[in-house]
Amino acid sequence: MLFDYFYGVEAEQYNFIRLPKLLMTQKEYCDISLESKLLYGLLLDRMSSSGKNKWVDEEERVYVIFPLTEIQKMMGVSKKKAMADLSELEEHGLIVRKHRGYRLPDVIYLMNLVA
After folding, report:
1. The pTM of the whole model exceeds 0.85
2. Signal sequence: where (predicted)?
3. Domain map (residue ranges) of the chain
């Protein structure tokens, strides 16, 4: 497949996944896998929609619902790997998961890295 160059304003045509630069530059995050960092970026992207949809809890904290099957599909990984990436983010304090019960996806809170 041959690709063409970008011309003029075409450089602005894509949506992007935001990945906080600190995840790449701060010492405390250097041992987090790239896949987990990418997942954090995907969760951040989802969170912007959550805010617009007023997905907030009783304490006004914005949360994300991102089913494991969707994480697997978006990242092209197995269920085991998706679960490991979520666990890695949780172990580093970057997310908090709230289990909702049988067959319901977890509620995921992203922690603000600059607060």
Report:
1. yes
2. none
3. 17-110
* CATH 1.10.3720.10 given to domain 17-110: no
CA dihedral (85, 20, 22, 60) in degrees, to 10, reads: -80
User: Positive or negative CA dihedral for 20, 73, 13, 43?
Assistant: negative
* Tokens, residue 48: 């912007």
Tens-place pLDDT, residues 77-101: 999 999 999 999 999 999 999 998 8
Contact 29, 84 (CB under 8 A): no
Q: Identify the bridge partners of residue 64 per DSSP, sorted by sequence position.
A: 108
By DSSP bridging, strand 64-65 and strand 107-110 are antiparallel
